[in-house]
Every structure is written in C-alpha cells, then in structure tokens.
Design goal:
Strand order of the largest sheet of chain B: 6-7-8-3-9-10
Radius of gyration of chain B: 24 Å
Helix content of chain A: over 70%
Shape of chain A: globular
Structural class of chain A: mainly alpha
Helix content of chain B: 25-40%
Radius of gyration of chain A: 18 Å
Strand content of chain A: under 5%
Shape of chain B: elongated
Order of helices and strands of chain B: EEEHEEHEHHHEHEHEEHEHEEHEH
Distance between the termini of chain A: 27 Å
Number of domains of chain B: 2
Oligomer: heterodimer
Largest interface: A-B, 27 and 32 residues
Largest sheet of chain A: none
Structural class of chain B: alpha/beta
Distance between the termini of chain B: 24 Å
Number of helices of chain B: 11
CATH class of the largest domain in chain B: Alpha Beta
CATH superfamily of the largest domain in chain B: P-loop containing nucleotide triphosphate hydrolases
Number of domains of chain A: 1
Order of helices and strands of chain A: HHHHHHHHHH
Strand content of chain B: 25-35%
Number of helices of chain A: 10
C-alpha cells in the first residue's frame, strides 16, 4: 500500500509542480471555447427544448477538458520518464504492476477532476449552470477519466518518441473527443454520422455527463454507463496486461 | 548458506543474437565481486536480468534465494542497483527523490537513514537542491544514494566511476568499501582494472555473452607465469644471446620476460660480461590487466 500511495503522491506532485500548465491552461482554453461558441450560437441553436445552448455546451466542455487532461497526464508522465530514463527507478522497485496501474490512473483522474471542477467553477461565475443530478455527473466524470487515464498509460508505454505520442493524441483522442457531441447533439446529424457517433465510446461519456447536469440526454444514461464501464474493463485489462508482461518497458 | 546471487543456466537472445549464453554463477554474501569484460560482452544485460529490467530467454536467477521473476517483490527488496546511465527525475530535489524512492520499497519515515546516506556521500549541502541543478558527479552520488534507501544486502554498481573525477572516484570507493565491510555484498562492473584489482575478491570475465574466467584475482594473476624486468641500458644494441631472450622493446626500454627471480641474476651476468651498464631497472609484477588482455585476446576460449 505504501508503494502505491508513494507513486500516486509522486504523480500528483509531478503535475502540481507545473500546475500553471497542467491545470490553469486547460481551464483557460475551455473558457475561450465557451465564450466564442456561446457568443456565436446562443441565440441561434437550441438543442433541447427549454435549455439554452450555453447550458448545453458547458457540461460538454467540462467533460472534454476532463478527458483530454486525464489522457495527457498519464501519457506524458510515462513518456517523459521513459525518454529521460528515470522510469528505471519504478522498474527497479518492488512495486507491482497493479500498484503502478492504479497510481497512474489515480493521479490522472485527480488532475482531470481538478480541471473539470475548475472549468465548472469559472463558468458558474459567468452563467447560470444547472447541476441537477450531481452523482450521475460525478459517476461519468470518474468512469470516463479512468478510461482516458488507462488509454494514456497505453499510449505512453507504446510510444517511443514524443512524436508518436502526439500522433496518438492528435489523430485518435482529439477527434474522438471533438466528435463526441460536445458542441452539438448527435440527433442533429445526418443518419450516417449519427451511426458513426454511436461507435465512438467518448460519446457515451459526454452524453452521460450531460444527463447529470441537465437531467436530459440523447440516450439512456444506464445504457451509456454500461458502454463506458465495458470499455473501461477492456482497456484496463489491456493496460494491466501490458504492464504485467513488461511490453516495451522490460526487454 | 543462501547465495547472495545465484544464476543458473541463464540465456538471453535477441533474435539470432545471443547476448548471454549459459551463465552459471554464485556470488556469496559479503563478497566484493567484479564483472569484467569489453563493451558489449553482456555485463549490463546480466545486471538488468538480475534487476528485473530485462527478462531472460531461459534459465533462473535468484537474489538472496528469491527468484527475480516469480518472487520479484522479495528479490528487488534485497537488491540495490546503481544504473550506468545518469538518470534523474527533474521534478524533485535530492531529498524528495530519496523519500519517494523509500516509499516505492514500502518504507515510511526513512529520514534518519536518508540523512546518514546524504552525509556519507557528502550530499547534505545539496539535499534541498533540484536534481536538474546538480553536476554530473553529484547526480552519480544521488544514484548511489537511491540504490541504498532500502538498505539492500546486495548492491550492484554498473560502472559507477565512468566519467567521474579522481577525487569523487576515491570517495565512492571508500564508501562502497565501508558498505562491504558492514556486510553488504557488492557486485560491480568497471573498465578500470586497477580498481577491480584493488577492491574485489573475485572476478568473472565475460566475453561475447559467456563467462571465460571465474576465479579469485590472486589465482588469476598467479596463473600468469613469471613477471618481466624493464631495463634502460647503456647500449641500444643487444648482444646476440640477449636478442633471443623473450621480451620486447618500448621507447628505448628493454623488457625481458623472466620465469622466476633466479633469471634476474642470469640476465645481469650476461650484461656484465658484455660490459653493458644498467641505467634504470624496474621489476613488473603481472596484474589483472595482463590477465584480462590474455583472456580476452585468446582466440578460442572455452574456460567456462
């Protein structure tokens, strides 16, 4: 337990020491999205009856920030440790692969939630944001960030250069988060795109979180939760297997 | 008695390349042991397998009786490794790095011991300095400190003095020697053979992934017959009888190989009868370097 706790704490310290870049910067960029999009679309778009576009957009921006930052945390920590070679201190220690897995995920979730809370907190100052079912929102935020934290571990282990990690981030994570219904309801899409959106696991996280905020969503939150948990189990299993077998880190 | 390190029929292959071949080795508690060999002989691969950083293709290795794969938690608790590369975590100070490293081994409140290693490695003044701000030699010392936070009975140092200045090198050896006297088993690799000769009891020499010599340093050196005598003479040209004497010439010095000390007298008698004066004389004992060159130079070496 002490081993897990130490690695978890070290991972927290790592992002906390550079919190300007890891917490404040993503909060600011979410805020910029909000200002621009709500300014342009507030009077033109209404996704759900009786709910303003800004109220629709905010939960999406919150979860997008959460997902991107959990992924960034575990992946960049691992790739930095790999490239600078200091991962050896963890590999030499008796930490088990499960402890390593949980510590990296845990710290990533904490960072994701801090950023999410930050975005939510700042928007609360500017707009009237409802949070009807906070437990649902928290559930999706945690499950979603765990999923992205695990994906971050996979990307960090798999990548050998910053280049490859950036490709993973820009060509997989970024499109999946952008096209998950953060800015629009997928019901507004042509049927082909609607079908494709249903294949995107991030859509269920966004829709579920929006349910927690607004009490209404594109599909049933139970179904979304089922999809997210299933993805989480599969990806976690894959991550633990990679750590256990020493894939790309123990030769 | 449980061996500190026990290696049994260990192989490591990378595709067709064989990095380690049938390594069998026991190192006993309290030994000061050197792994020697040219670059690429497999020393670091062997250390990495013991540390769990690399997985063997086949065979077993144990640290204090604990298998490095199936019982890795206990084998790693018993082992401290100083890696060859100068690695560090730029987010932390020296003290933070040591506290974190202790935590990885399940140790809390390790301050007393951390203070002691900092003191003994002369790092106390740098304890609260960020790792990035340290010189190379300081970083090397922190690596040693990190390997010791959990007081491991077995310590492996992979070229700890590569690129380190003389003063620090001596300080490091003094410290490591102390650890050995306190009962720690020490295994090291080094390119400085005189260091190995001065410090270690036993050596294993690796060549192309195989152990080609494994013995005490004394036995290895004794295995080399005779010594050599180095002379500067009043005459550059040697009489015919001495031209046939086994030896060599190096920058005006004549080096004669002798099998025993009695031959010194024979040699000097010849010189006297030829009216050649001895200007300088030095007797050279065989050393580990000579053994090393002889073993590594051997065409087919199947000592193992």
């Amino acid at each position: 337990m002490i081993g897990f706790y130490t690695l978890f704490y070290k991972e927290l310290l790592r992002f906390w020491k550079v919190s300007f870049q890891t917490i404040l910067a993503p909060i600011l960029s979410s805020l910029l999205y909000l200002l621009v999009f709500s300014h342009v679309l507030e009077t033109r778009v209404q996704v759900y009856p009786g709910i303003s576009y800004t109220s629709f957009l905010i939960p999406g921006l919150v979860i997008m920030a959460v997902l991107q930052n959990t992924f960034a945390n575990s992946s960049s920590s691992l790739i930095q440790s790999k490239i600078s070679g200091n991962l050896v201190f963890i590999l030499l220690s008796p930490l088990s692969y499960l402890e390593i897995f949980l510590a990296y995920i845990g710290a990533a979730v904490v960072r994701g939630l801090l950023v999410g809370l930050g975005v939510y907190g700042v928007t609360m100052l500017l707009y009237d944001v409802p949070l009807r079912l906070p437990l649902w929102a928290l559930l999706f935020a945690i499950a979603g960030s765990m999923l992205l934290g695990a994906l971050g571990i996979i990307a960090g282990i798999w990548s050998e250069k910053f280049d490859q990690l950036a490709a993973f981030q820009n060509f997989i994570i970024l499109p999946l988060t952008f096209l998950s219904g953060v800015f629009y309801s997928i019901h507004s899409l042509p049927s082909g795109w609607q079908y494709l959106s249903h294949l995107n696991p991030f859509f269920y996280i966004v829709d579920g979180l929006r349910y927690g905020f607004l009490g209404t969503s594109d599909i049933s939150p139970y179904f979304s939760l089922g999809v997210v948990i299933s993805c989480l189990i599969v990806i976690s299993w894959l991550t633990v297997w990679m750590l256990k077998s020493g894939y790309k880190i123990r030769h | 008695m449980v061996a500190a390190i026990e290696i049994h029929q260990l192989y490591k292959r990378y595709g067709a390349f064989s990095a380690l071949e049938n390594i069998n080795l026991s190192i006993y508690p309290g030994e000061f042991f050197a792994l020697l060999g040219p670059n690429g002989a497999g020393k670091t691969t062997l250390i990495s397998i013991l540390a769990g950083l690399t997985l063997a293709t086949s065979g077993h290795a144990k640290i204090m009786g604990h298998d490095v794969v199936s019982d890795y938690v206990n084998s790693r608790r018993n082992l401290g490794v100083v890696p060859q590369e100068l690695v560090f975590d730029p987010f932390f100070t020296v003290r933070e790095a040591l506290i974190i490293q202790s935590g990885y081994y399940g140790i809390r409140k390790n301050e007393t011991w951390i203070d002691e290693i900092l003191h003994r490695l002369d790092l106390t003044a740098k304890a609260d300095t960020n790792m990035r701000a340290l010189s190379g030699g300081m970083k090397r010392r922190v690596l040693v400190a990190q390997a010791l936070v959990h007081k491991p009975p077995v310590i492996i140092l992979d070229e700890p003095t590569a690129g380190v200045d003389v003063e620090l090198r001596q300080a490091l050896w003094f410290f490591i020697n102390q650890l050995n006297r306190e009962g720690h088993t020490i295994v090291l690799t080094t390119h400085y053979l005189e260091e190995a000769e001065a410090l270690c009891h036993r050596v294993a020499m690796l060549k192309q992934g195989k152990i080609v010599a494994l013995d005490s340093i004394r036995n290895l050196i004794n295995g080399i017959q005779g010594c050599s005598i180095q002379l500067r003479l009043s005459s550059e040209t040697l009489p015919p009888i001495l031209q046939e004497w086994p030896g060599s010439r190096h920058e005006g010095l004549h080096i004669f190989k002798i099998k025993d000390y009695f031959q010194v007298e024979t040699l000097l008698a010849i010189l006297r009868s030829e009216h050649i004066q001895v200007l300088e004389m030095q007797l050279q004992q065989p050393d580990l370097e000579e053994v090393f060159i002889k073993i590594m130079g051997a065409e087919s070496s199947d000592v193992s």
